[in-house]
Amino acid sequence: MDEKSLIKKLRNLSKDKSISLNLTDDAAVLQDFIISKDILIENVHFIYRNNLNDIILKAVTSNVSDIAAMGAEAKYLLLGLGLPDYIDDADLLKALEKALDHYKLDLIGGDLSKSALLFISVTIIGRKNKFLLTRKGAKPGDIVFVSRPLGKSIYYLNKELGGDFVTEHYHLEAEVELGKFLGTLPFVTSCTDISDGLGVDLASIADTSKVKIIIDKNKIPVAENISVSTDEILKSGEEYALTFTIDKKYYETFLKIVPKKVYEIGIVEKGSGVFLKTEKDFLEISLYGYLHKT
Questions:
Q1: Is residue 41 pLDDT above 80, yes or no?
Q2: Residue numbers belonging to the annotated binding site for substrate
Q3: Is there a domain that residue 135 lies in?
């Protein structure tokens, strides 16, 4: 069973949909707080090569990115660790302090245990902004954006899997400031972060909003100094860029006030699914990305 199918079954266990958002979004909403949870497991999500700083930063970034995707600001962190004997306490403390300082987070609790492999569980609590951004709300006519060029994650991951000692893919930043900015705007109709791949993550917006999304192949921005195919770009997870939709009536206003360069890549239409517009036809890309197995 894949993650998406299991989550659908888990929705029956969620009683208060106003908090869980029916398990359809990046985080839960509890009054004025946004709560995100993620786990990273050695040899599943990362390869341990005495690069604890990189791994801890990635674990924290993954959750901060979820908070940013809701338009909120990450504030507090709870940490669960399964620690094998080869993890040095002093190195762990330094890595954690560095990651907390990087995102201005306060460690408020957690749990520790021995483990055969390194296991990291992070819960981050953020404060809700003026507007709550979710995956539900995109409507026909909305313009689709992505926050930055893509492809670094899959490019450097492939290098690492090929035996190169590279760390660039561990250092992709959560879009903290852009997320907070988008959370102040009434015309951002949906938002998510690219954690599993552009195709899959846009499909989460299309499915939840009950719309079709069309992406123009020629408009997808590609990071500099890498060589990747369109297929790889669409499937590149753990990019931590934001992809979001804007009400077309506010398109010009948005471009004037957005504090950083963002990239228009498509449009929302009636229908369902996510499609890539090429020179010849339309290719459905709703499943382009990492589909977790359970």
A1: yes
A2: 45, 238, 290
A3: no
